[in-house]
Amino acid sequence: xxxxxxxxxxxxxxxxxxxxxxxxxxxxxxxxxxxxxxxxxxxxxxxxxxxxxxxxxxxxxxxxxxxxxxxxxxxxxxxxxxxxxxxxxxxxxxxxxxxxxxxxxxxxxxxxxxxxxxxxxxxxxxxxxxxxxxxxxxxxxxxxxxxxxxxxxxxxxxxxxxxxxxxxxxxxxxxxxxxxxxxxxxxxxxxxxxxxxxxxxxxxxxxxxxxxxxxxxxxxxxxxxxxxxxxxxxxxxxxxxxxxxxxxxxxxxxxxxxxxxxxxxxxxxxxxxxxxxxxxxxxxxxxxxxxxxxxxxxxxxxxxxxxxxxxxxxxxxxxxxxxx
Amino acid sequence: xxxxxxxxxxxxxxxxxxxxxxxxxxxxxxxxxxxxxxxxxxxxxxxxxxxxxxxxxxxxxxxxxxxxxxxxxxxxxxxxxxxxxxxxxxxxxxxxxxxxxxxxxxxxxxxxxxxxxxxxxxxxxxxxxxxxxxxxxxxxxxxxxxxxxxxxxxxxxxxxxxxxxxxxxxxxxxxxxxxxxxxxxxxxxxxxxxxxxxxxxxxxxxxxxxxxxxxxxxxxxxxxxxxxxxxxxxxxxxxxxxxxxxxxxxxxxxxxxxxxxxxxxxxxxxxxxxxxxxxxxxxxxxxxxxxx
Lengths: 324, 292
Hints:
Low-confidence stretches of chain B: none
InterPro entries (chain B): MetI-like
Main location (chain B): membrane
Number of helices of chain B: 15
Distance between the termini of chain B: 51 Å
Largest sheet of chain A: none
Structural class of chain A: mainly alpha
Order of helices and strands of chain A: HHHHHHHHHHHHHHH
Strand content of chain A: under 5%
Structural class of chain B: mainly alpha
Number of strands of chain A: 0
Helix content of chain B: over 70%
Subcellular location (chain B): Cell membrane
Helix content of chain A: over 70%
Protein name (chain B): Carbohydrate ABC transporter permease
Order of helices and strands of chain B: HHHHHHHHHHHHHHH
Largest interface: A-B, 90 and 92 residues
Number of strands of chain B: 0
Radius of gyration of chain B: 25 Å
Oligomer: heterodimer
Number of helices of chain A: 15
Family (chain B): Belongs to the binding-protein-dependent transport system permease family.
Strand content of chain B: under 5%
């Protein structure tokens, strides 16, 4: 605090403020010092290899993709600049609208389930008892499993004739379903698998959030007679809000980018019911080789993700603070 | 009496908690258990009704059959080579770059760092097509002249490795860790006449071992599990990494032949689960670190 005061504009200082330096003057002053020069040269040479790679494999591709989205480029023809035609074509493209809807529907199934289950798991494993590491690890194992391996296993579980899930349904008195071959069930089936695969990741983030909440708050609440349920809604939930937003955005981004299981398990079918935006990018870009058009879809995906990230940043600015 | 009652209540609560957590663990692990069970079941038992949870008879037939059906040793070699090179290079380059951003001052530093942060928001799918075009048209590779014409780097290790020698988040992670080190360390080394690279290499880099371990584990498992990029640039079977190999193994011959398919899935899955068991805390670190 004391330091802050001496710098505050209210304190009277005997020396007049130094005149503002121009950019050039600052540069000259910086480079005049031998030590500065030495460190700056070290700095540039340390980042040079990385930035060479970033320029070629990150910055140029992004700019190039943006340019491609305004061309009729295919792998066979150089294509030409066609303005916003790709974007106007998107508006009337049934396949695109279908993919946009599928992606949204899929996200609406995955995200609420994922967040609520992973929060429950985090609350459950947020205690110090024997063997807890085993339980945390076992909820996390699906995260480290590759999406292709997980797809193979779940295709077997979902198998219409001999799959375990249909067996369980029959035992419980329901009709067996043809899961991945049913246009109404294929996307929910993929969503269920994604929830299984994703809850461990968010559980760990929630766990870190929970552990940053001071214990004294719960002690105070319990002295005042608040039950567990009440202290969850009055303390945990509001203080966890930034974490929840973060989890929400990360989950949305990864859900919007789903590809591997769709490629492996359904190939976008049956009848397009599991074609998501990323799968459509793949189809247009690498099966029909309409790379200009595919780039336009990719940028729509980017704008959706970007908007969600901005919304997240806006909300996490307003942090709840219970100062003690 | 009262204390005893309280103890009993405490005991039943703990038991209930364990039962609940164990039940969830069974649900989460069940697909893996079922994969193992299926892979060891003889074909005669595969479709028996009701399905047997514990096979009456164990067989390695599926493993033998699956191993012979595709060049698995080649798949593993490809993935291991690619993953090791990328892990190594991304550790070194991320540390070097992250260190420069955290500890060295140079004009344009903030701009370059913000550029990198901004690029982290761009989904990989956006860059997919230009990256593919760069690989195909890579000058003087695979029959290309300066302007392309051949197949470029398609179906080579370079296609799998070069675009992914480092990742922006690695730089970010390393920078965050280097920021936490005290300044006195580097000052002391500077007074001793250590070069800037020497300060990084001999003094600072060894101090961020937890971050290095986290990055190594994360990058290695990411490359091991990766599917989308190899799918785009590799179609020659002998160059396939394991995930692509597994997928093509399934579509080529074993669409519904679950025994061999599960056997193959077992050996694709087990290595990463073993790494996970030994490096658990670093795996769980990474997503906490990303919350910054």
